[in-house]
Amino acid sequence: MTVRPLTRPAAATAPHEIHARLAGVTRTYGAVGGRGGVHALGPVDIALRRGEFYSVIGPSGCGKSTLLDVLSGLSRPSAGTIVFEGRPVDGAVPDGVGVVFQEDASFPWMTVRDNIGFGLRENGVDAAEIGRRVDAALALMGLRDFAAAYPPQLSGGMRQRVCIARTLVMQPRLILLDEPFGALDAQTRLIMGDELLRVWRETGATVMLITHALDEAAMLSDRIGVMSARPGRILAEIETGWPRERDSRIAADPGFGAVTSRLWGLLREESLRAIGAQAPAGADRA
Amino acid sequence: MSRAGLVRTAIVVAAVAALELAARGGLLRAGVAVPPSEVAAKLWSILRAGDANADLAETLGNVALACGLALVAGFSLGAVVHGLPRLRRALDPFLASYYALPFFAFYPVLIVVLGIGRLPIVAIGFMFAVVAMMVATLNGFDRIPRALPRTARVWRMGPVRTALKIKLPSAAPHLFTGIKLAVAYAFIGVIAAEFIMATSGLGYAIAYAFNNYDNRTMYALMLLLLGIVVVVNGVLHGAEQRLLARRRAR
Ligand SMILES: Nc1ncnc2c1ncn2[C@@H]1O[C@H](COP(=O)(O)OP(=O)(O)O)[C@@H](O)[C@H]1O
Ligand SMILES: [Mg+2]
């Protein structure tokens, strides 16, 4: 892969088609009769453009996973609306949405091949088509030699690849990833990031990546939503302006430092707040 | 064989030999003990003549029925109760103290309600086994990584499919503990119930031999029961090992 000179402006197609939209979304956990509970998120407004790579970055505990939960339909927002491909999302995951969780979600009782094909089988896809898609996903994620292995025999990075492959075979149009590389070492993260970029380009899917790593967000994204400390709100959205053909070597681009320092400028105070807010445990519950 | 295995075998051989010697040397009264070799010979002749076949089939049928029902009901109840945290909190003390109940004391009630015959016997075996399976299911479901059922929701699988295709295999190592307990409890329940309220079956045959001072038959049938339980447990253990082998990192 080559890093092209960064002279070309970012995919500058004039009116962006909105793929998914969150409007005034909030989420409160465990509120009883409208009182108490943890206000985890929002209000948040995000408009994901079709085919873009959008990252969400924010201090830990700011509500990033909660955001993914409500956007995917895994949980209902306490207020606000979510629309995916023109239809409201309400308490169920719509067709066309794929999710990769932060934790390992591979099935230890199935081979890698069966893991990847499981969702297709459950959704009634015929065997020949499953075989084709699984083979393609195995090749794409570098898992061909491990097709017959069981996940416990693999490293954490390999297992996360299984989960990504399992999501890709469903051919989602919107892929949500919750800190998928969190458990990996720095070099593996970079490589997985490049693979994710390649998948994103080849599938044309819209990607929302949740991360707490500045460089990861800066390196991979078209746009980055920066979240405040809990309750998480979007403080700013930063356009990176990277070309569609790119990989982790973009970190050498002079513009990269500008992006990361802007991110850090926004996040420093929030991260301090997040740490500070944790000190008096449960103080906000009174 | 491992060192521990050798020691284990030696203990069993020594115990059988000691019993043989004690019985033959007149250390034990003839009415109490029969030398193991004679017990084995008696069992062989019973098996050859097919004298115990009907009782054996009946008992195994009762155990299989009690155990099978207990496994299905225990798993289903466990799965449902796991999804209803409030009900579970309410039930917890009952589940915890369930095996403190002296079930067999209630046998007259069972006979009054269910009549004489198979039903009360299977019922006791079932009641004895079902809660072990239910508790094992609850424990197993507690340990399912959260991301697994969430993955099922992303694939829009319903609650029953999720329970059978995701939660059941994920909890399988814990469920296996429940299965082993349920099998053991079903055997105990059925045999004991046959002692007190049956007119056929292995438990009844043992009690009948005992009441008629037929020690040889009594011990032979006990040996038969022991053999069956050992084989069943061996098969379960083997299946469990195969299941776990895949899930261990190499
Ligand atoms: N199921 C839950 N019940 C109660 N509080 C929760 C729950 N899930 C998350 N929270 C709280 O909501 C806040 C945001 O959590 P989360 O979305 O997981 O943050 P992040 O992913 O950014 O680290 C945290 O304070 C967390 O403790
Ligand atoms: Mg999180």
TrEMBL record, chain A:
Keywords: ATP-binding, Nucleotide-binding, Transport. SMART domains: AAA. Residues 20-254 form the ABC transporter domain. One of its GO terms (molecular function) is ATP hydrolysis activity. Belongs to the ABC transporter superfamily. This is ATP-binding cassette domain-containing protein. It comes from Rhodoplanes serenus.
Automatic annotation (TrEMBL), chain B:
Its main location: membrane. It comes from the Bacteria. The chain crosses the membrane at residues 63-84, 96-116, 122-141, 182-206, 218-239. The keyword Cell membrane applies. GO terms for biological process: transmembrane transport. Keywords: Cell membrane, Membrane, Transmembrane, Transmembrane helix, Transport. PROSITE patterns: ABC_TM1. It is a multi-pass membrane protein. The keyword Transport applies. It is found in: Cell membrane. Belongs to the binding-protein-dependent transport system permease family. This is ABC transporter permease subunit. It comes from Rhodoplanes serenus. The lineage of its organism: Bacteria, Pseudomonadati, Pseudomonadota, Alphaproteobacteria, Hyphomicrobiales.
